Amino acid sequence: LILFCCAFSIHANTLSSTESLTISRNLTIVSPGKIFELGFFKPSTRPRWYFGIWYKKIPERTYVWVANRDTPLSNSVGTLKISDGNLVILDHSNIPIWSTNTKGDVRSPIVAELLDTGNLVIRYFNNNSQEFLWQSFDFPTDTLLPEMKLGWDRKTGLNRFLRSYKSSNDPTSGSFSYKLETGVYSEFFMLAKNSPVYRTGPWNGIQFIGMPEMRKSDYVIYNFTENNEEVSLTFLMTSQNTYSRLKLSDKGEFERFTWIPTSSQWSLSWSSPKDQCDVYDLCGPYSYCDINTSPICHCIQGFEPKFPEWKLIDVAGGCVRRTPLNCGKDRFLPLKQMKLPDTKTVIVDRKIGMK
Question: Is Protease among the key words of this record (predicted)?
């Protein structure tokens, strides 16, 4: 008599109202194509547990979204479940420390589902459409994935932005944020706490002026949408087998990483700010910055340093006119290869085309 004992591992991409995930059981949810995985994790030796999403197919554990980044579990007891139409995380005392806070019909059964895009969604059980009650893509952490939007939903007032980690292995909200400012001309700003340290320049129909690296490549396409319903940035991959992501680092760098299977590591494609001249308002008013000169700050033609002792080395003063403005004689001069000035207070004639 031969006895066979078989162990099965079933990877489901949904969580029903009768199921739960706990730290102790170490169960996870895997997307249909086994691209992303979701569950509890501990990123360091400290006793702090988080619930998040990471790449399943990539051996190097790379987290792309964290639910309770500012309310970690302090011990190895925690539960994720569906309660009253919401996805909630309960601590060891069954007290909610995080919730999706949706307002759906609690009488209708719902499920949580992890998609192959890396999007965790809540939907009604009998509805497989793209109409979600809640989705993690609306609440980014420090990472922007393909098909994920960064910017404003003008119908709901939702602002999707990135917030850096506190440190490389601490998902707590850090000092840097990456937000879309929707003035007359929209552009992204990187803020250190609440102070701007970098901006992309406005979108010119092809790219953000200060980010030439965003031009279309062989494997990624950027799309900037601005209409009555939304103003947002997203990107798509031309190859489903290529994994790439945008990330705001804990050091204040906006970076693109692409996974290289042959070397089994993430490759840094580009990062912003690129150099010292990318720093916001480095040289002050009526000046420009040239990284290839010393000093790097210069006054625009017709202007001089506000303080003669400044010599455009200290960045405190900026420049002033040599002579008063004369609207009858003064003229405009072109400045080539420049990032357009801050556009929060400009007037734009949108009937004028690119040419």
Answer: no
